[in-house]
Design brief:
The complex is a heterodimer of chains A (482) and B (159). By secondary structure, chain A is α/β, with parallel strands linked by helices. Chain A is built from 22 helices and 17 strands. Chain A has three domains: 62 residues, N-terminal domain of TfIIb (Single Sheet), CATH 2.20.25; 185 residues, Rossmann fold; 157 residues, Dimethylsulfoxide Reductase, domain 2, CATH 3.40.228.10. In chain B, strands 1-6 form a two-stranded antiparallel ribbon. A two-stranded antiparallel ribbon of chain B has the order 2-3. In chain B, strands 4-5 form a two-stranded antiparallel sheet. The chains are: A alpha/beta (482), B alpha+beta (159). The complex binds iron/sulfur cluster (4 copies). One iron/sulfur cluster binds next to helix 2 of chain B.
Chain lengths: 482, 159
């Protein structure tokens, strides 16, 4: 009988618990048979076994037949020794300021620290993090200190009587829907207000939907936080002043509440949005905030890089340097951000030498001309510590053997002969985010500028990285049109 | 009575995690279709009917009511004619013509044999899916047939 065979198999296979760290929620997952089968971690407090489609992609990384196992020079497979001599020899002719370095926000704190230390050892200053552009913008806003603003835990979210959601959280992380349902159906009178210009999955669950003009969410938030007169805000965002005042009062008087901010790349000034979310949370008792990052370790990687290399360039500065030919060589850690991004590929063609450490072969032909590709271990093979959306530190232990791929810490060690210890990164992150010394008044002045930003040219959407990674997965390819 | 997968329309957020989980357990072919409504992408689960119209329509006896009261499709007998897909009154069989196979929920028999719940129920992010005795759910049937949220959004839409 089929059933009997299956029983025997399940007795032999060992279940290993781990975390999905593809986004900043950190859901629990279980893998069986060395990662070949998926079991659901039903007793994990974060997700109770639930996984979003992206979480399934993440698990597919383990044992994916397309994964790199050996270093490659162009399309040619080579040994590690040959690869390292090649890198050393190719990097030699460049000056230190001619080398740039990009580290993905999906990597662990340890990996980020290793990259930073390698960059310091090599004397490279052009180090930058690569993630969703909106996430990075929101991270900038997160640095502005607002006294009294506290990060919400998921338990606080679940027990809140009022939720204020900015953006489409249920499309980004449906795993939170169980908790949002708890608020919606838990007690009569609970309110869920969604601020979004569109009808989305999240607005389905809203008790009230504030449809503002696209891109004016920071203005709505400023009005709700009392930093902008309601009439003035109403003229910009298109929501009646009375409605804004009523919403603000209802949120203020609720016994407990959570503001959830979802950075979205079509919205200008996510940093201001996060700043006002913090002000809103600090304004009345028992209100907290949560910023959801699409890339798992946006908080951790950025904190580490900011601390270790304080004078690193911004994204546009780095691109400008590549375009002007000031940067001739690039070290890409984690992801090839130019995949599926034609403008970036054009810029990357000007590079003389690229080192790319990733999970899959890069899709962008620009990388192939003169490059070396190193196989990178995924979180399930390499492990590491990650900073989640609620500010907690999650430790992920390696649970499956890596078939040829190597953790980034080790790659960096080989590159620069520096071996940072595991604990270093935890210390570095434990000190909380770097704070940005910025006058409140300045930020308040800037929110009025959103009106100008809204009418100006549409900001190009730089949503890089994720597409290439996800594009490699079977389920995505089979269901691309579904 | 047998256990079946039930959907609570008030809770489902249309995330398709259930379809992803189904695909991962079934050779990357999701056996679970989603309604194509723009506003509400709800999963369409096979009910494993008492008198399955799909089985009656099948010219090749590929679709059959089994002894364990589930309706199963035999991959080897199926010729991909899509008769079942047309016959099913609930539209749950969404044919994948490119592959010449017709996906149909098997109620995750492999997991049931191990004493686990089906994949889609285990992974449902909102708690909308449940795996329960049919009798228990009958009392609650109104909940599964009509939804306050649906009505509010379709009928009473304010904008
Ligand atoms: S919500 Fe985030 S952490 Fe959870 S399964 Fe999805 S991608 Fe992974
Ligand atoms: S496919 Fe349709 S007709 Fe066949 S058992 Fe399922 S619900 Fe009934
Ligand atoms: S019960 Fe199993 S086969 Fe049926 S839809 Fe759910 S996951 Fe797919
Ligand atoms: S996983 Fe649950 S919430 Fe998501 S579409 Fe399926 S039934 Fe709905």
């Amino acid at each position: 009988m089929v059933a009997d065979n299956l029983k025997v198999k399940s007795e032999n296979s060992k279940i290993r618990n781990s975390l999905c760290l593809f986004c900043s929620l950190g859901c629990g997952v279980s893998l069986r048979d060395e990662g070949k089968a998926l079991a659901y971690a039903q007793d994990n407090p974060v997700n109770k076994g639930a996984l979003c489609p992206r979480g399934h992609y993440n698990l597919e990384l383990v044992n994916h037949p397309g994964r790199l196992a050996e270093p490659q020079i162009g399309k040619r497979k080579v040994s590690w020794e040959e690869a390292l001599t090649f890198i050393k020899q190719e990097l030699q002719p460049f000056r230190k300021d001619e080398v740039g370095c990009l580290v993905s926000c999906l990597l662990s704190n340890e990996a980020a620290l290793a990259v930073a230390r390698t960059a310091q050892a090599l004397g490279v200053k052009n180090v930058l993090t690569a993630g969703a552009a909106a996430d990075l913008e929101a991270y900038e806003g997160n640095k502005w200190t607002v006294p009294g603003a506290e990060l919400a835990s998921l338990d606080h979210l679940e027990k809140s009587e009022a939720l204020l959601i900015i953006g489409d959280i249920l499309s980004r992380s449906p795993v939170l829907s169980r908790r949002i349902n708890q608020v919606k159906y838990g007690k009569r009178g609970n309110q869920i207000v969604v601020i979004d210009p569109n009808q989305t999955r999240t607005t389905w669950f809203a008790t009230d939907h504030l449809a503002c003009r696209p891109g004016t969410e920071p203005v709505v938030l400023a009005a709700l936080a009392g930093a902008l007169p309601a009439e003035e805000a109403a003229a910009i965002c298109g929501i009646a002043a009375a409605k804004l005042e009523q919403t603000a009062a209802a949120f203020r008087t609720a016994a407990s509440g959570t503001v959830i901010y979802v950075p979205q790349s079509k919205r200008p000034r996510n940093d201001l949005g996060v700043y006002y979310v913090k002000k809103l949370a600090a304004a009345s008792p028992n209100k907290k905030y949560l910023v959801y990052y699409l890339f798992g370790n946006t908080l951790g990687v950025n904190t580490v890089i900011d601390r270790e290399i304080p004078d690193h360039p911004t994204y546009h500065e780095l691109l400008g340097k590549i375009e002007r030919g000031e940067i001739k060589s690039l070290l890409l850690f984690g992801e090839d951000i130019s995949a599926g991004h034609e403008e970036l590929q054009k810029k990357f063609r000007m590079l003389k030498f690229v080192v790319y450490a990733g999970y899959f072969e890069s899709e962008s032909p620009a990388i192939y001309d003169n490059s070396i590709i190193l196989p990178l271990a995924s979180q399930f093979e390499g492990g590491g510590s990650y900073v989640l959306a609620d500010g907690s530190l999650a430790a992920c232990e390696p649970i499956v053997p890596a078939a040829g791929s190597v953790p980034l810490e080790k790659i960096c060690g080989l590159l620069a002969d520096c071996k940072p210890g595991r604990n270093d990164a935890r210390e570095c992150v434990g000190q909380g985010p770097v704070t940005k010394a910025k006058a409140e008044a300045e930020a308040e002045g800037e929110v009025r500028a959103v009106r100008a930003a809204e009418q100006g040219p549409v900001k190009p959407i730089t949503y890089f990285g994720n597409n290439q990674l996800v594009g490699n997965f079977f389920w995505f390819q089979v269901n691309k049109n579904g | 009575m047998a256990k079946r997968v039930f959907l609570n329309l008030d809770l489902c957020c249309g995330c398709k995690s259930c379809a992803a989980a189904c695909a991962y357990g079934h050779h990357l072919q999701s056996l679970l279709g989603h309604s194509q409504l723009k506003a509400a992408e709800l999963p369409l689960h096979c009910l494993h009917c008492d008198q399955p119209a799909c089985a009656a329509a099948c010219p090749n006896e590929a679709m059959k009511k089994m002894a364990d009261e589930t309706v199963q499709r035999s991959q080897y007998r199926c010729v991909g004619c899509r008769s079942c897909s047309v016959a099913c009154p609930f539209g749950v069989i969404q044919p994948d013509l490119a592959k010449h196979i017709t996906p149909k929920c098997d109620l995750c028999l492999d997991r049931l044999a191990e004493g686990e719940i089906p994949r889609c129920v285990a992974t449902c992010t909102s708690g909308a899916l449940s795996f329960a005795e049919v009798d228990e759910q009958i009392a609650d049937r109104n909940k599964n047939l009509i939804s306050v949220r649906m009505l509010a959004n379709f009928v009473g839409r304010r904008r």
